[in-house]
Amino acid sequence: TKDLNGVGQVVLRNPQGASAQVSLHGGQVTSWRNEHGEELLFTSSKAIFKPPKAMRGGIPICFPQFGNCGSLELHGFARNKLWAIDDNPPVLRPNDSQGKSFVDLLLKPSEEDLKFWPHSFEFRLRVSLAMNGDLTLISRVRNVNGKMFSFSFAYHTYFLVSDISEVRIEGLETCDYLDNLCHRERFTEQGDALTFESEVDRLYLSSRKVIAVLDHEKKQTYVIRKEGLPDVVVWNPWEKKSKSMVDFGDEEYKQMLCVDAAAIEKPITLKPGEEWTGRLQLSVVPSSFCSEN
Ligand code: TA6
């Protein structure tokens, strides 16, 4: 089922009790809970719910620019805009809606937006919750017969973890990455799973379609499946940087990890009438850890 509550949030629910919450503000998923009602996404205790500022946590949409590698605000304007419910959504793949509770949102540029980013686009976002609790986000960006344009994109996903020092990422081994902490210098990841002892801010050039985030304490694994999104951003600000952010609690860096399915290194270019689709499917599965971890 889905219902729009008074604060512009669409709540998706499935019969097993799992739920997801999507805000019309920013098209941002603000909550994803399992069948026991346990929250799976991080939201800062100091998050600012004051439009147009994006709320720190959940899954902000970074579009048409990731980071501040362009002329727009950090991570682009899409996450700071009011989206509309899309009443005539495009037909996606049949299983994109079978047995799922979903909502379709639409973002189009206002006259104001066109002054900053003069490209006529339509951005359709489908957020769906499957019967098994999986959360899927499908973004479709179309060039509405304007001139050719390029953009970078990320699902800026704040996963909730029990203790960052007990988390590891599998699926990025041997991938190259650009290290934001070293002037985006290029390195190659070693053969082991990624673990965390200090600030990490990296862009992995990983065309692998499945990434796993293992939370030792919770004995659960987030499984990230992505299509049309060749890169993965991994970010934890650690103590010093998180203390410098007003909307980030002092110790909260221990309970979060951003693992963003993205298209950044090679921006997406759309000719008039062309469309790009970026799919993200999130699952959470119990994971039995072997004792050596
Ligand atoms: O996730 C990578 C990153 O660009 C970091 O460098 C940091 O700036 C972060 O995003 C900021 O994201 P925020 O949600 O605070 O806009």
What would you say this structure looks like, in words?
Keywords: Isomerase. Belongs to the glucose-6-phosphate 1-epimerase family. This is glucose-6-phosphate 1-epimerase. The protein has one domain (2-289): Beta-galactosidase, Chain A, domain 5. Helix content is 4%, strand content 42%. The protein has helices spanning 111-116, 238-243; strands at 2-4, 9-13, 19-23, 29-33, 61-62, 84-85, 101-107, 121-129, 135-143, 149-155, 158-160, 167-170, 176-179, 185-188, 194-195, 200-205, 210-215, 220-227, 231-236, 256-270, 275-286. The protein has a 9-stranded antiparallel sheet with strand order 6-7-8-9-21-18-17-12-15, with no helix packed on it. Strands 5, 10, 11, 13, 14, 16, 19 and 20 form an 8-stranded antiparallel sheet that branches. The chain has a 4-stranded antiparallel sheet with strand order 1-2-3-4, with no helix packed on it. Strand 8 (121-129) and strand 9 (135-143) form a beta hairpin. It is globular, with a radius of gyration of 18 Å. The structure holds 6-O-phosphono-beta-D-tagatofuranose. 6-O-phosphono-beta-D-tagatofuranose binds at residues 56, 67, 74-75, 156, 180, 201, 233, 235, 258.
Quick summary of this structure?
InterPro entries: Aldose_1/G6P_1-epimerase, G6P_1-epimerase, Gal_mutarotase_sf_dom, GH-type_carb-bd. The protein is mostly beta strands.
